[in-house]
Amino acid sequence: MNQDRLAPSCHGGAKRQESDTPIVAIVGTPNVGKSLLFNALTGVYVTVSNYPGTTVELSWGTGRFDGRTAEVVDTPGMYRLLPITEEERVARRILLEERPAVIIHVVDAKNLERMLPLTLQLLETGLPVILDVNLLDEAERMGVHVNIEALQRRLSIPVVGTILSRGEGVSGLKYYVTVALNGGESAHPLAPFRVRYPPEIEEALEEIGHLLRGAYSIAPRVVALLLLQGDEEIQTLVRECERERYEQIMTVVARTQARFARPLSYVIAHHLAQVAREITREVVTITAPARPHWSERLDALLLNPWTGIPILLVSLFLLYEFVGVLGAQVLVGWLEEDLFEGMINPAINAWLTAYVPWPALRALIGEEYGIVTLGLRYAVAIILPIVGTFFLVFSIIEDSGYLPRLALLIDRVFKRIGLNGRAVIPIVLGFGCDTMATVVTRTLETRRERIISTLLLALAIPCSAQLGVMMGLLQGDRYLFLIWAGVVALVFLLVGYLAAQILPGKRPAFYMELPPLRRPALTNVLVKTYTRMEWYFREVLPMFILASVLIWLGQLTGGFEAAVRGLTPVVRWVGLPDRSAVAFLFGFFRRDYGAAGLYDLRHLMTDRQLVVSAVTMTLFVPCIAQFAVMIKERGWKTALGITAFIFPFAFFVGFTLNRVLLWVGMP
After folding, report:
1. Residue 191 belongs to what domain range?
2. Are 372 and 394 found together in one domain?
3. Which listed site, 173, 251, 253, 568, has its alpha carbon 20 to 30 Å from 17?
4. Which of 54-63, 329-338, 540-549 has the lowest mean pLDDT?
5. 526: how many CB neighbours lie within 10 A of its CB?
6. What global pTM score does this model have?
């Protein structure tokens, strides 16, 4: 998507470059079913996750509504029109700049009171709004009953009750979207409900409204409300549009603020909450559920530290057994040793010897570092089964709703390292792919949090492929694996703590919607696993082939051997065999590529060297793709500073660990 589409304008918003097709915008807080609705309206699958962050990159699709075609956009999670996070800012800009033909606000039926304030703000924009009250099945199970007809009459807009996980209610939403796209009268010809604020604020809204002469994408009343709340982006927009009237407008804002002891943003938010509470009392009835559901009992266990931490440890053990044993040992052993080493590589080398007379071409395709014998073998035999098993487990975990509960569980620990529980999302996602997780760090509120999380992802979070290879490298020895995991965890906490002390900034408040615990849907899990594997494999295979070509060129020019000679004293200082320098050279291309290189040398190393090499490679420099994303997200200076710190630090930790293990007597 062209970023110019989000540039502020005081002439009715940025015009779409691609087409004049009307837009249907899906908005709402995270974890309410927005992506499920997007899939239902477009038929295009995107990853449906139970954690915020998957829709930071806007998802666009095409939907057909009784013959009419419209663009459907799944916006990032937002709580109100006054943005705090980058997610909310992007979502708000879609409404400001694109002026959708219709907005579908998806809310959780169980938490209607908390979500109605955004509905009330959307109604004042002047844009057509449809309210989707989702998760009705879970609300009913918990004894929460929403009178959809009463809510519809109260707000005077279309309101549809849905269970999007089963596709119930989608036809009703499509009907109202069709009515809005055709510009016809809906079942609600009256003006939508409008909030009446305290007299002082209403007076200011009227006065500012008369002074606003520019062409805005939303109603002047909403522009005035955002000005009263100190929205800097709107202030910039109004300054550009009104010019000589801007100072007069800001005088009204200052005069109104002087009449209240609290900030106007608090006064307005508090009033909206009161109105939402009154509406909820009229349309919602609560009865005691017949008996506690299994998910509620499990919820209590997951959120209690005394039971939640043991459950987390058991989950990590099962992850180790599935990925480290089944993926990294059984599947990798069969593919790498039996298929490639036993059949494919000998056949390729024999064919090259018989039919290709040029040694340089034989080295490019086969022999020790060829495209097939090294690049394809690493990608297919070592990386693919590990990535597949990890993404399968990860899809089950996120589809169950466990990740937000993990965020609440470890919030206190993360505050010690300058983060909060919300940061668990990119950190855990980093165990799938650090590149993708670095993008997701933009969902964190402060620049300080984003820098710390980016540093920790680049330093101490192994991606799924690297993690699985490390499990295979340590040969299923749980003792060695615990040493590796303990050292990496210690580095994670220590560096995070020191970064939090050095970097200035305040701790943000932590809030997160808890989606319900669910039994993972098999189809959802399989599709998400396949989608992620396809994406990862499309990224990793060209990189591995490119690495093989660069190594081949380096061998022709002598640069490869020179680089290996340059790294040899460093790995020897750490206590590793000279040949491991080749693996660390591979690590400059991708850390999982380097880990696969260590896997090839596992039979040449002692237990001590195995665990030292595993720790050092885990802490090694980020891969090329992650480094590029770090530059894009954090800038050149921060990306280079992080990398310059990581490279010597990784070898220093490896050297220290080697000396400690020698001191305690490990051979």
Report:
1. 1-291
2. yes
3. 173
4. 54-63
5. 12
6. 0.66
